[in-house]
Amino acid sequence: MVVRTRGPAAGSAYLGRAMAGIGETLREERRRQGRTLADVAAETRVRESYLAAIEEEDFGVLGGDVYARGFIRLYGNYLSLDADSLVEAYRATHDQPQPQAALPTVTFDDGLDPEPPGLPPWLSPPVLAAVGIVGLLVVLFVFFRAASGGGGDPEDTNAPGPSPAEVSEDEPATLPSSEGTALADRPANPLVDGPVDTATAGEPLTELVIDVSVLAPVRMHVVRGQPPVNNATLEQGDFRQLTGDPAVIFQVSDATAVDIQVNGLPLVGLGGPGQAVQVSCVIGRPGCDVEIL
């Protein structure tokens, strides 16, 4: 495997040697740069034991293919190697095909609310239409009876008014929206508390590699995912790459202070200036949820 290198730390445009594997490629480049596993762990926030496992290609201890690819990408970027080539090499040799289920069965400790229930059978459109027709017939019967003298003077102020069925026909029905997915038992927010709005968009996610580029000073907290960030203040120019299986959930104190890409695609519609948001991305769900906090 030939791995390209990037940046001034690489020393050349390419590593001209064919590497025996992912682990050996990373280990030899780390040693060439005179760095220890402890140095890498301190900078990338990836556990030293995980880095050692990657160098030994003991990927089974990393918790799954999504975590393994994310850690390999972080390690490769840190050493200024072509992380994409390393990840593709992992895909070709270690990724396990995932069985396709009829419906998503994603679960994790925090849990997700089910989709809002549909209308009960007695409120189905055919039943509502039948009730409306019956009500209209009752109103017409009362009106014609009063006009023909069978129900008293049509001008009588005590004549019965319109039935409830007639009134209800003029009022549009309000149905619960089935769009969006709320988070159940959301953990306490260390950034800010307040009402939550949820927005969703995109296609079902098959993996999670989330790049967060900091455009202005901002506070960030990772609720679920790797590497951990505990309500830290990030400065302009900082960068965090988050991975998770089956989910990544994180919060930022200002939606306009970060640029977020999910699997290489930009995440838009985060919020306005000064708005704190929580981003929740779940494998198998369509796109990512953005909650304004």
Describe the structure.
With 293 residues, this protein is α+β, with helices and mostly antiparallel strands. Among the domains are: 22-94, lambda repressor-like DNA-binding domains (434 Repressor (Amino-terminal Domain)), CATH 1.10.260.40; 197-292, no CATH class. Helices cover 28% and strands 16% of the residues. It is built from seven helices and ten strands. The chain has helices at residues 22-32, 37-44, 48-55, 65-78, 83-94, 125-147, 164-169; strands spanning 197-199, 209-214, 218-224, 232-234, 239-243, 247-252, 258-262, 265-266, 277-282, 288-292. A six-stranded antiparallel beta sheet has the order 1-10-9-6-3-4, with no helix packed on it. A four-stranded antiparallel beta sheet has the order 5-2-7-8. Helix 4 (65-78) runs antiparallel to helix 5 (83-94). The chain is elongated. The model is unreliable at 7-19, 99-116, 151-157 and 162-200 (pLDDT under 50).
Descriptive tags:
six-stranded antiparallel β-sheet; alpha+beta; single chain; 293 residues; 28% helix; four-stranded antiparallel β-sheet; 434 Repressor (Amino-terminal Domain); 7 helices
Which stretches of 5+ consecutive residues score pLDDT under 50? 7-19, 99-116, 151-157, 162-200
| Structure annotation, total helices | 7
Biggest beta-sheet profile:
6 strands, antiparallel
Which strand order spans the largest sheet, edge to edge or round the barrel? 1-10-9-6-3-4
Percent helix, as a range, is: 25-40%
Gist?
This protein has 293 residues and is α+β, with helices and mostly antiparallel strands.
